[in-house]
Amino acid sequence: TAVHRLGKARLTVTPRATGDGSWRVTVVLSVRGRWLLRPVAAVGLLFARKPVERGFREAVDSSVAEWAGMLAELPRLRGEALRAEIADALTEPPEPVAEEPEPSEPAPKPL
């Protein structure tokens, strides 16, 4: 939920498992506005609805592909073995991150 003095927006995402092992996700965006914002937003959304839907759908599809890749890399652990793996990952100290050198200024070009 996002709240502003001129309006309020609420995004609801509802996942449901289907019979074939995939998921169906329903997304609902509701927007309420005040005063002058209502007619302006209505006209804007009238023209922008399809591009917004397309962009959202593309973003969700790319997220699904990214998650599928990440989940495929997870070990096939179950039960106690999975809990032990998670506990080990949470209790091990983080690996040190090598700092990148700061970029130096490029040499001036001769005239």
Key phrases:
single chain, 111 residues, alpha+beta, three-stranded antiparallel sheet, 2 helices, 3 strands
Explained architecture:
- The chain has 111 residues and is an alpha+beta fold.
- The protein has one domain (2-90).
- The chain is 45% helix and 23% strand.
- The protein has two helices and three strands, in the order βββαα.
- It has helices at 37-73, 79-91, and strands at 2-4, 7-17, 23-33.
- Strands 1-2-3 form a three-stranded antiparallel beta sheet.
- Strand 2 (7-17) and strand 3 form a beta hairpin.
- The longest helix has 37 residues, at 37-73.
Strand order of the largest sheet: 1-2-3
Quaternary arrangement of the chains shown? single chain
The number of distinct structural domains comes to 1
Which structural class should the secondary elements be placed in?
alpha+beta
What is the chain-wise order of helices and strands?
A: EEEHH
